[in-house]
Amino acid sequence: MPDVRVICEVSDGLEAIQKAAELQPELILLDIGLPKLNGIDAARQIRELAPKSKILFITQESSPDVVQEALSVGANGLFVKTDASSDLLTAVRAVLRGEHFVSQI
Fold this sequence. Notes:
By secondary structure, the protein is an alpha/beta fold. It has helices at residues 13-23, 39-49, 64-72, 84-96, and strands at 27-31, 54-59, 77-80, 101-102.
């Protein structure tokens, strides 16, 4: 995607919060299973510090409860890691257009 640029990568939820506040990115791709602070808890704080950033979750969990919790914290989308090859670009495009995306679970 030539119109999308990666500006930062982090390794845990605490760093994700710090960088989101600092950089105010348009889109944050956030793993639910992050160390130190999971992605859902990080997203709650990111929502406060970077309210204009769109959040797209990636997860290996496909339970309806995880999907519901992710969306309840204000995520714009979610896709499952096993579907990343087919869903990543579609999800990114949808979320950047202001749509919600949830992969088939």
